[in-house]
Amino acid sequence: MAHERPSPYPRKHRLHGPHGSAALIGVLTLLLGFAIAVQLRANSNGDALSGLREDDLIGILDNQNARADGLRQQITDLQNNLADLRNTGDRSAAARRQATQQAEELGILLGTLPATGPGVRVVVTDPGGKLNGEDLLDVVEELRGAGAEAIQFGTVRVGTSSSFEGAGGALTVDGSHLRAPYTVLAIGDAKTLDTALNIPGGVAATVRAAGGALVVHELKTVRITVTRSVARPAYVKPSH
Amino acid sequence: MIAGLALVAGVVLGLILRPTVPTWLEPYLPIAVVAALDAVFGGIRARLDGIFDAKVFVVSFISNVLVAALIVFLGDKLGVGSQLSTAVVVVLGIRIFGNAAAIRRHLFRA
């Protein structure tokens, strides 16, 4: 503030003397220049808030608080959105996993996919050529009954529509001609399969009666690589 | 002449010394500066009119500054500080414009 101390000069000199008045005017304008410079600097400090009044500051604070509240609300909303989307994504991923797993299981059961697992290799010899298709179908039936999940007969993957024909050592499975000895691969619980084949009065006994032999090897890993194709149903449609 | 030199010297001093404005002075300094500017323009006009009086100038300078500061101070106390400072700035601005117009007429005859 351009505040003036009383001049030490006597009154006569103070305002009427040419030097005294000039000096006083000089001091005043010097103070003015000084104040201008100081004020300019204070304003250009970049701290625009320091020069404001209490009321204005309260208004600005209120504005900022309202803005912060709005933004916080927005954050909450967006976080909820994110959680929702993540949930949906998880659920559809789980559904997809389940569907894939189901497709694989069905593929193995239908024989459209290669399969591997513990199981047995069965070798049936028929030197007399007395086994017919029905006997060999019994082998497959026995394996299925004992819980075999995938079966390969010779070079044919056994499926739901497999057929066994022929007799006298010349066998036709699904249209493929097979000759003795027949090798059957089955995936399942090896012990159960072995027991089922060798049950007294079972298929092993039938083969032996025909002069052949049925040998079961229990294996830790059986690889069934042959697959079959499944025809698209022409008449059947799924009904719910 | 002396006044102009002193003004420049004051600006230079302020830029060199870089003083910080005390907090209690912050609301008053800009108003005081405007009031002092009004006095200076009035002084220049009086000089051009040939009726300049150093005493009148000094008294009007100081009283302008004090009254302006007082009005702002009162306004702050009454809760209408910002409105009253605006009023002071408007009034002083009008006076400065009037004086500047008179000075212009003297200098440019227009």
Describe this structure in words.
The complex is a heterodimer of chains A (about 240) and B (about 110). Chain A is of the alpha+beta class. Chain A folds into three domains: about 10-40; about 55-110; about 115-225, Protein of unknown function DUF881 (Alpha-Beta Plaits, 2-Layer Sandwich). Chain A contains six helices and eight strands, in the order H-H-H-E-H-E-E-E-E-E-E-H-H-E. Chain A has helices at about 10-15, 20-45, 55-110, 135-145, 190-195, 205-210, and strands spanning about 115-125, 150-155, 155-160, 165, 170-175, 175-180, 180-185, 215-225. In chain A, the strands form two sheets. Chain A has a five-stranded antiparallel β-sheet. Chain A has a three-stranded antiparallel β-sheet with strand order 4-5-6. In chain A, helix 4 packs antiparallel against helix 6 (about 205-210). The two termini of chain A are about 95 Å apart. Mean pLDDT of chain A is about 85; it is low at about 1-15. Chain B is mainly alpha-helical. Chain B has one domain (about 25-110). Chain B is about 85% helix and about 0% strand. Chain B is built from four helices and no strands. Chain B has helices at about 1-15, 30-50, 55-80, 80-110. In chain B, helix 2 (about 30-50) packs parallel to helix 4. The model of chain B has no long low-confidence stretch (mean pLDDT about 85). Classes of the chains: A alpha+beta (about 240), B mainly alpha (about 110).
Largest sheet of chain B: none
Radius of gyration of chain B: 16 Å
- Label the overall shape of chain B: globular
- The assigned CATH architecture of the largest domain in chain A is 2-Layer Sandwich
How many domain regions of chain B?
Answer: 1
Number of DSSP E strands of chain B: 0
Mean of all residue-level pLDDT scores of chain A: 83
Distance between the termini of chain A: 93 Å
Strands of the largest sheet of chain A, in order across it? 3-2-7-1-8
